[in-house]
Description:
It is globular, with a radius of gyration of 25 Å. The protein has helices spanning 2-25, 178-186, 317-324, 384-389; strands spanning 32-44, 51-56, 65-68, 72-79, 87-90, 114-121, 127-133, 145-150, 164-173, 196-199, 207-210, 215-222, 229-233, 238-243, 246-253, 255-258, 263-269, 276-283, 291-298, 353-364, 367-372, 375-377, 397-398, 412-414, 416-417, 426-431. The chain is built from four helices and 26 strands. It is 10% helix and 36% strand. By secondary structure, the protein is mainly beta. It starts with a helix and ends in a 20-residue tail after the last strand.
Amino acid sequence: MGEVMILKLLAGVLAMVCLSNMVLQVEAEDPYRYFTWKVTYGTIKPLGVPQEAILINGKFPGPRIEAVTNDNIIINVFNELDEPFLITWNGIKNRKSPWQDGVLGTNCPILPHTNFTYKMQVKDQFGTFTYFPSTKMHKASGGFGAFNIYTRPHIPLPYDPPAGDYTLLVGDWYTAGHKALAETLDAGKPLGLPNGILINGKQNGPKFVGEPGKTYMMRISNVGLSTSINFRIQNHKMRLVEIEGTHVVQESYDSLDIHVGQSVTVLITCNQAPKDYYIVASSRFTIPVLKTTARLRYANTKIKASGALPIGPTTHVHWSLKQARTLRWNLTASAARPNPQGAYHYGNIKTVRTLVLENSEALIDGKVRYAINGISYVNPDTPLKLADWFNIPGVFELDSIPDMPTPGTPAKMGTPVIGTLLHDFVEIIFQNPEGTIQSWHIDGTDFWLVG
């Protein structure tokens, strides 16, 4: 009897050891965050004039997404508009899920009164990002919001944790709405000067509170249509720490130019006399200069902001270029980074191809169009990803766009796709002969401006 009990005890211990080993071998899945969004029209008055806007869950701007590196994001979007609708995730890489990017090249549009569920993982990412509508000029009427990704707790930051975290969505705003603006463009006319500048959907209003002596993080994104913004805070320096998922060598600035689509993260220390201070966002490269204000309020004070608004640059392009050259990647900071697929020594890699992409304005069939190297892009009925995966002919034209601009050649319509080979080292030069600032959307990639 004693031997039988000993054998049973040993068998039980062995089973527990095996079960323990199995548990140790199973890795916990990264957390999931679920969102349900209802996209509707609604009336807002950000500039004092009632106008129709695109709301998400009744909000303008839309709900803020807050996630942690490697989280899985599930967003079920119900389109209650009278037009097809898509949302793109500005700067989110969509690793292993490029078809979730939310543009007509990768997604079919969400038809009216239907829904689509975005499923993506913010793999190896952190930082300040945004989302916005990608079709039919919808962005001009709203539908945009913040997308903040925080580093996991055990990853050290190259700065002390701030006492608070504020998100500021800054951008130009038109009272006309997306349908009227689209008609203006279709008539061959430019959009014209915006009607104002908004901060978090308001003009002259938002307040951000800080305790004296403490440091706060501000995540600032330009969610406008076409206008670059200069951002500054009265009597306060801004310490730049991150740009769209990349730690930078920290420098202090009196003001920062933030171009359309860009996001920056700064630290502000409340080291002045306790009172309110002006926060100013003003348009760049426009005449006249448009501006709006918010407030940085020191806690437990009722002293209002006073004095002149801090002065910022206006139409000086060179000033903006000089500032851009001060931005440097912090290669020593710990951060979420993709796992390297081998060792790359960039100085020793031979460039196999150079692309010079030049934007231009052209009149095609009586309408103003914009082209790259002479070809104005037309969205096909079938998303490019589907056409590529299923080898559907006639959807796009591979390598139909020249590697270099061809001066004097009339612009034409087309659906060009630039084809490259895996691991090719390609140099891309963006060339702008136009008299206005151009912003390029390089989605799903790691890149850094080198020239």
